[in-house]
Amino acid sequence: MRFFGAGLAAAELMTCYLGLEIGAYQALADIGPATPAEVADRAGLDERMIREWLEQQAGAGVLRVEDAGKPARLRRFELPPEHAEALLDPESPHWIAPLVVMPIGGMAAILPELVAAYRKRTGLSPSVYGEAMRSGQAELNRGVFDHHLSEWIARHLPDIEARLHVPGASITDVACGSGLSTVTLARLYPAARVHGVDIDSESVAAARRRLAGTGFGDRVSFGVQDAAEEGPSGHSLLVCVFDALHDMPRPVEVLRRCREMLAPGGSVLLMEPSVAEHFSTEPADSERFHYAVSVLHCLPIGMSETPTAATGTVMRPATVRSYARAAGLETEVIDVGHLFYRLYRLRPASG
């Protein structure tokens, strides 16, 4: 019965992915309560196919239906405002659409390649997962960057936050992906220069496209760089690694380079999954999610190179401390009360 429930949830998640991709949710949001024919016309879809989807979504509790007793063609379906916010509004802290896109469009789509990788005892390149995974992962963190990051830094790194408002301050965003975090840092700290680096050239190209039109081009830059290799030294007040260290084959080398990037008095700020201190057979649901993502994505890409630390998503605080210690950094674990994430402040070890 538990597997039936999981299978049902997986199938319904696929139908939600379908609704996002074909524009059916957006059509409903645009026109309000509508018949299948009206939705089909708005979205450019087949009436019979969209009627089946509408009925399925109503049964799943995503849509409401007026006059369920009417003939099928005359029933009117509605996307409730709170559901529209969760599915369609990237500015909302309740936006959940990336958690639909990532597992279905990103991870499920490459299962044959993943099976082959497990059988061959090899990892998978991040590029295998495609744009759905790349953009979904970035957008999943949008709410954190937009609604929490500023307050977290002000509360837990007040000395750094004060200096970031002084002209000439510099921030390096390591593993910046498509640049969402980098641009957010530039918006939060208008006196600072921000440099984003990522090993993936396609992500850096996307970051540069994101930068265009923001007005931050005079103080934000991006570069393709392996963060485990030599990088710029001694200029950054803050070096950020957001939700990425656990994916890296050589995390100690990356942290060592981050330490070398720091200006005097600077800090490295990690944002990583908030998991328990120790393994348990009854983990929190959030940790169950992290484990599933690790099996399907993070561990395989972390093993795409050799040698590799093979960390995985479930990187516990003791692991972070050991990596930081090996890189010459001291660790402060910061519980920010978030369901999915915690922070780590790393500073050069004294002596």
Detailed description of the structure:
The protein has 351 residues and is an alpha/beta fold. Helices cover 48% and strands 16% of the residues. The strands form two sheets. A seven-stranded mixed β-sheet has the order 5-4-3-6-7-9-8, sandwiched between helices. A two-stranded antiparallel sheet has the order 1-2. A hairpin with a 6-residue loop joins β8 (329-334) and β9 (341-348). The longest helix is centred in the N-terminal third of the chain and has 20 residues, at 2-21. The chain is globular.
Sequence-ordered SSE layout with sheet pairings:
Elements: H1 2-21, H2 24-31, H3 36-43, H4 47-59, E1 64-66, E2 76-78, H5 81-88, H6 98-107, H7 111-120, H8 130-140, H9 142-147, H10 149-156, H11 158-164, E3 170-174, H12 180-188, E4 193-198, H13 201-211, E5 220-224, E6 236-242, H14 251-261, E7 262-273, H15 285-302, H16 317-326, E8 329-334, E9 341-348
Parallel strand pairs: 3-4, 3-6, 4-5, 6-7
Antiparallel strand pairs: 1-2, 7-9, 8-9
Helix pairs in contact: 1-6, 2-3, 3-4, 6-8, 10-11
